């Protein structure tokens, strides 16, 4: 008897590789799926990204205008967390979580007008047809993943900042308000990190063909209002909401004759699944060999590192020492994979690099447009806050901030399991040894935190020139220490005021860069100096540690 066929049904996947790795689907059939004749039968959406149109717009300005729209059109805001919902709560009719979401959806469908509704972490599984939702807002990147998904996102997406799961959830979220080909809505994508993702050319292929077409049309319409006030963006949205004939015709044309996309399965995904099959059949050596063949043709070092980590797992089954050796190689490619037991070789920063030259090199190699530059800086600035729920994001933002202004910048504790949270090389053999305590709420700096900074000072003294200048820096709300803590000579503190000033300086620097010639070292040096971001000026964002709290 012929073996039964398995059929997988899916509406939205940014990367179809999961069907192969998790479910064992045949890769060839995933790449060539059974699809509808057309991919354009989804309904009309005008997709607007206000901070892509005008990077000077603030979140508050955009929210205020959306609140006005909600007075005449049901408006649904999708946010990743309760914390994110707080900025909308004062004006929302409902902030719905898991317990109240069904009741809220029913209200939107049955009542003539509800107004502004916020849904927390709900990007799929809900239908908001017709007048239930005419304005849909996705505010902030979806981030509420499982621990396993978060780890996988770190391992495979650290440098590109693109996570296929986020793209998938954005796509799913945008589909909540158009449930037939006769439906229509306006979609606003808010937040610098979300806007940054939409302008990245590497993101576009991850969206469905219909969404790509609608994004292209919306950008064409929005190009006429580039750098215009928010009122012009709302006027454009009203063309769709008020059924302007020109817009409706353009929208229909954009969805005509769109061919469905082929499936996407990476070579690495196929290798992972086939290696898993080898291992479960009692052949770990075959699993290692299959992973090795994938490594040989993979160009992305992050992916190579994650494949090496998997190869180390299979090697460990028969030869634990070999497994640790392979894991060491993996960690050299990707600092988010598992750390080997024997520790890691630390790679020191350049102690004498020229800040301006490095700043110019990094900016010119990374950005192709002023919009990309502004949004990238803004996504860093957004994370430079005291928040006990986003400590990891803060440390990465500090690394990025140092990198973007031309400093040597590392996260030694994260990358090597030892040393400070952040390390900045300021040039001329001078360093900032940074311990970030943005989650601390104590009235003074405690013994443990001071001890960590002291250990980090010992750490850098063992790895760098003894004649170098090592400045101990603590990022903390307090300036005093508790009586049982030991003070550290020369210690500086970045408090909330100083951190806010640093964030504002980075934002202003990016605005100036975007409107000037960022490839010219003379210009870049002038702007760094003007915004207080040259290495010798950074101390102005700090205060000395003084006083002991009794």
Describe the structure.
The chain has 550 residues and is of the alpha/beta class. It folds into 3 domains: 44-254, Rossmann fold; 267-333; 355-549, Restriction Endonuclease. Helices cover 46% and strands 11% of the residues. The protein is built from 23 helices and 14 strands. The chain has helices spanning 17-21, 27-31, 50-53, 59-69, 82-85, 101-110, 147-157, 164-174, 192-199, 209-222, 230-241, 245-254, 267-280, 284-297, 301-316, 320-333, 355-366, 370-381, 391-404, 412-416, 447-463, 496-514, 521-530, and strands at residues 44-48, 75-79, 94-96, 116-120, 135-139, 184-190, 408-410, 422-427, 430-436, 469-475, 481-482, 492-494, 543-544, 548-549. Strands 1-6-5-2-4-3 form a 6-stranded parallel sheet, sandwiched between helices. Helix 13 (267-280) packs antiparallel against helix 14 (284-297) and helix 18 runs antiparallel to helix 22. The termini are far apart. 43% of the residues are buried.
Please count the helical segments.
Answer: 23
Question: Class of the largest domain in CATH?
Answer: Alpha Beta
Low-confidence regions = none
Shape, per Cα inertia axes? globular
Strand content: 5-15%
Q: What is the strand arrangement across the widest sheet? A: 1-6-5-2-4-3
Helicity range: 40-55%
- Number of individual domains: 3
Biggest sheet, in brief?
6 strands, parallel
Q: What is the C-alpha radius of gyration, as a whole number of Å?
A: 26 Å
Label the CATH architecture of the largest domain: 3-Layer(aba) Sandwich
CATH structural fold name of the largest domain: Rossmann fold
- Average predicted local confidence, pLDDT: 87
Secondary structural class: alpha/beta
Distance between the termini: 83 Å
Total strands: 14
């Amino acid at each position: 008897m012929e073996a039964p066929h398995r059929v997988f049904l899916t509406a939205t996947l940014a990367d179809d590789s999961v069907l192969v790795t998790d479910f064992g689907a045949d890769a060839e059939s995933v790449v060539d799926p059974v699809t509808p004749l057309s991919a354009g039968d989804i309904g009309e959406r005008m997709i607007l990204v206000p901070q892509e149109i005008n990077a000077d717009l603030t979140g508050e300005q955009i929210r205020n205008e959306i609140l006005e729209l909600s007075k005449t059109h049901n408006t649904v805001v999708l946010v990743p967390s309760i914390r994110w919902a707080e900025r909308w709560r004062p004006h929302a009719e409902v902030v719905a979580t898991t317990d109240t979401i069904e009741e809220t959806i029913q209200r939107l469908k049955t009542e003539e007008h509800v107004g502004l509704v916020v849904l927390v972490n709900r990007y799929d599984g809900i239908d908001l047809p017709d007048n239930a939702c005419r304005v849909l807002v996705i505010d902030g990147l979806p981030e509420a993943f499982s621990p396993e998904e978060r780890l996988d996102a770190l391992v495979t997406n650290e440098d590109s900042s693109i996570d296929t799961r986020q793209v998938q959830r954005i796509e799913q979220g945008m589909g909540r308000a158009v449930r037939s080909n006769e439906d229509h809505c306006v979609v606003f994508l808010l937040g610098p990190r979300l806007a940054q993702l939409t302008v990245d050319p590497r993101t576009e292929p991850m969206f469905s063909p219909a969404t790509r077409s609608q994004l292209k049309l919306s950008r064409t319409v929005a190009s006429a209002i580039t750098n215009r006030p928010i009122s012009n963006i709302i006027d454009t949205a009203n063309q769709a909401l008020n059924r302007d004939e020109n817009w409706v015709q353009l929208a229909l044309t954009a969805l005509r004759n769109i061919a469905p996309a082929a499936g996407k399965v990476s070579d690495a995904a196929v290798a992972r699944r086939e290696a898993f099959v080898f291992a479960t059949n009692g052949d770990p050596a075959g699993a290692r060999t299959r992973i090795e063949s994938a490594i040989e043709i993979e160009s992305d070092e992050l992916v190579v590192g994650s494949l090496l980590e998997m190869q180390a797992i299979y090697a460990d089954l028969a030869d634990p020492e070999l497994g640790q050796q392979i894991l060491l190689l993996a960690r050299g490619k990707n600092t988010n994979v598992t750390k080997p037991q024997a520790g890691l070789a630390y790679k020191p920063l350049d102690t004498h690099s020229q800040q301006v030259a490095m700043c110019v090199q990094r900016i010119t190699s990374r950005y192709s447009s002023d919009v990309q530059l502004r949004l990238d800086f803004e996504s860093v600035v957004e994370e430079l806050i005291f928040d006990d729920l986003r400590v990891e994001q803060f440390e990465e933002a500090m690394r990025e901030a140092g990198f973007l202004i031309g400093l040597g910048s590392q996260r030694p504790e994260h990358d090597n399991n030892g040393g400070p949270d952040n390390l900045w090389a300021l040039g001329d053999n001078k360093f900032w040894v940074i311990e970030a305590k943005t989650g601390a709420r104590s009235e003074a700096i405690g013994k443990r935190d001071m001890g960590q900074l002291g250990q980090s000072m010992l750490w850098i003294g063992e790895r760098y020139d003894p004649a170098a200048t090592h400045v101990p820096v603590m990022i903390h709300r307090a300036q005093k220490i508790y009586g049982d803590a030991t003070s550290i000579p020369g210690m500086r503190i970045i408090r909330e005021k100083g951190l806010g000033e640093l964030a504002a300086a980075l934002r202003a620097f990016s605005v100036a860069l975007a409107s000037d010639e960022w490839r010219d070292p003379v210009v870049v040096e002038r702007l760094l100096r003007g915004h207080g971001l040259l290495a010798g000026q950074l101390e102005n964002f700090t205060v000395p540690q003084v006083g002991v709290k009794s």
